Amino acid sequence: MKDWLMEHKVYVIIFLFIAAIGGYYFVQQENQETIASPPSSIENMKEKEEVSEEAVKKQEETVQQPEWLMVDVKGQINQPGVYTAKAGDRVMDVINLAGGFTELADQSQVNLAQHVQDEMVIYIPAMGEAGTGAAVAAASGGGTAAGGESQNKGKININKADASELENLPGIGPSKAAAIIEYRETSGPFNTPEDLKNISGIGDKTFEKLKDLVAVQ
Q1: Calpha distance 60→159 (Å, rounded)
Q2: Which of 28, 65, 91, 160 has the highest Cβ tally under 10 A?
Q3: Measured between alpha carbons, how far is 16 from 20 in angstroms, rounded to an integer?
Q4: Residues 6+ positions from 116 with CB-CB distance below 8 Å
Q5: pTM of the entire structure?
Q6: What Å distances lie between residue 196 and 36, 56, 139, CA to CA?
Q7: pLDDT by residue (tens digit) across 173-211?
Q8: From CA 205, how far away is CA 211, in angstroms rounded?
Q9: Residue 32: alpha-carbon gap to chain centroid
Q10: Taking Cα atoms as reference points, which of 70, 100, 68 lies closest to residue 86?
Q11: Can you give 9-64 as a three-state secondary structure string?
Q12: Whole-number Cα distances in Å, 131 to 92, 127, 135, 158, 165
């Protein structure tokens, strides 16, 4: 064997050299593939995270409960009262909850497509009822504020309103609007909404329609 190795020493050295080069090249190829693979893995991880976030968002949207609103319905309605509505409901939806209109209801003065708000007052006037342009009025948006401004938001201030604003109230025509203005100019500002009953022609029945739509400031 030794003699054979001695005779073929040159060939053995060449073979070992070629094998060493081949082994080094093979190791380098594996290292390059290993280095190149992380970006692909990172991209896969990002895709999985995005899918996971979308799934969480969808689950949160499914679990979220609708916002509930309290709406007061008055006037020519079969079942007046306070009703619970969902965010996005319209005036017509709440009127249906209240049993619908009576035969005397003047639907032309109400915006049935309007979205309802929390603490809203919906007043449905009778046919021929004067000054009912503001048949739907939003009350306060909730909470309390200094001076009661939040509670009076959306209401007509009878101490400052002009004749045209007052005529928007149910049952208040030009003559009663003029009487309200004359009263506050001669007797001083209204202290409470109930003071309206001091005006000739405004009794308990008319005041019942007005009490949730007016304020004094």
Answers
A1: 48
A2: 91
A3: 6
A4: 69, 71, 85, 89, 90, 91, 93, 94, 122
A5: 0.40
A6: 85, 56, 19
A7: 899 999 999 999 998 899 999 999 999 889 888 888 888
A8: 10
A9: 56
A10: 68
A11: HHHHHHHHHHHHHHHHHHHHHHHHHHHHHHHHHHHHHHHHHHHHHHHHHHHHHHHC
A12: 21, 11, 9, 15, 9
Amino acid at 11: Y
Q: Where are the beta strands (DSSP E) in 87-200?
A: 120-124, 136-138, 156-157
DSSP state of 199: S
**16-27 pLDDT, tens per residue?**
777 777 666 666
Q: What gap in Å lies between CA 174 and CA 166, rounded to an integer?
A: 8
Q: Which residue has the tokens 């073929």?
A: 8
DSSP strands (E only) in the chain:
68-75, 81-86, 120-124, 136-138, 156-157, 214-215
Distance, C-alpha 204 to centroid of its chain: 37
- Which residue's entry shows tokens 């309390």? 144
